[in-house]
Amino acid sequence: MMRFSSHAALVACALVLTGCSGSKDAAATKDTPASLTVTVVRPQQLSWPRLLGANGNLQPWQEVVISAETGPYRIASLNADVGGRVRKGQVLATLARETLLADRARLQAAVAEAQANLDKADSDVARARQIGDSGALSAQQIQGYRVTQQTSQASLAAARAQVRAADVQLGQANVRAADDGVVSSRTALLGKVVNAGDELFRLVRQGIIEWQAELDARQIGAVRAGQSAQVTLPDGQKVTGIVRLVSPTLTSTTSRGIVYVRLAANSPARAGMYGSGVIDVGSGPVLTVPDGAVVLRNGKSSVYLLGKNNKVKETAVTTGQRRDGRTEVSGIATDAQVVASGGAFLSDGVSVRVVSAAK
């Protein structure tokens, strides 16, 4: 009996100790502190300039094609080259004039002949008028003189018109710039025989370059003609410009439209470059959070919001501008409680300790 009682007492003690240990473990688990101490803030709504980022090609505002207006004639001289600035009316090239001068001399001789024929017809008509009453000339003969006079007048007018046409051709032998600009290409070669319509030069009209910025359907609706823009060139230089035109249509493949930004004259921009820049579409309200609140993972931006029982929830956001230590975001409520920093060490559903809260 004594041995059995001692054994029972030992068992009872073991059970009591086990129960005590379990209670302590449960209490310890219940009182385990949160994994991270954080500060939460509410998003702040500010009025910021709205800048739309875009990329696009740099192209001439307009191109001027200079072609030969007459031909076939040989290029006798060249007075302009690629990259040169030219003025409206400036002679860029001349065509050989020998043939044109010979044609003009021949036509002037035809004018002299027509004038002589007209003088004779005028004399015949005057003489017929003097002797008409005497009956020496029939009415048919008198009418014939008058018809010859009219024919001679028409022949003289036609000959004079041909001389004027020859003068025009002589003027066209001087190939002139149609407007101010910069020579962007030259296909004219000294001694080459060109025909009417052959392209000889191409100009960037008035030397103006445009930035053709590509924007999506959401962005392009905020752009208006007259808004300012700034373009960064490949070498880092920045050029200012003004929106000239917003494309009324979008491409069917990419759903993007073109905004034509006219850059400042004499800028270092060159046609064929590719630039990135921003368009200032005015100021407006934006929802912002501290830069440290935005977490970038797998190419996506998110923030952590404080929920019930001090547990955080990862929420995807769309980011915009960054300035003054804050980032524009969308996708969260204005009264949300956002973890201000340290989000890189958190994960969805983790309990945190909040040390302070601010608007």
From TrEMBL:
Which key words are in the record?
Answer: Coiled coil, Signal
Q: What is the protein name stated in its UniProt record?
A: Efflux RND transporter periplasmic adaptor subunit
- What InterPro entries has UniProt attached to this entry? BSH_CzcB-like (IPR058647), RND_pump_MFP (IPR006143), YknX-like_C (IPR058637)
The YknX-like C-terminal permuted SH3-like domain, residue ranges: 286-354
Under NCBIfam families, the record lists: RND_mfp
Signal recorded as keyword: yes
UniProt lists the family membership as follows: Belongs to the membrane fusion protein (MFP) (TC 8.A.1) family.
Q: CzcB-like barrel-sandwich hybrid domain location, by residue? A: 75-203
Query: In the record, which residues are listed under signal peptide?
Result: 1-26
Coiled-coil-forming residues are 97-131
> What Pfam families has UniProt attached to this entry?
BSH_CzcB (PF25973), YknX_C (PF25989)
- Coiled coil found in the keyword field: yes
Q: Where are the transmembrane segments?
A: none
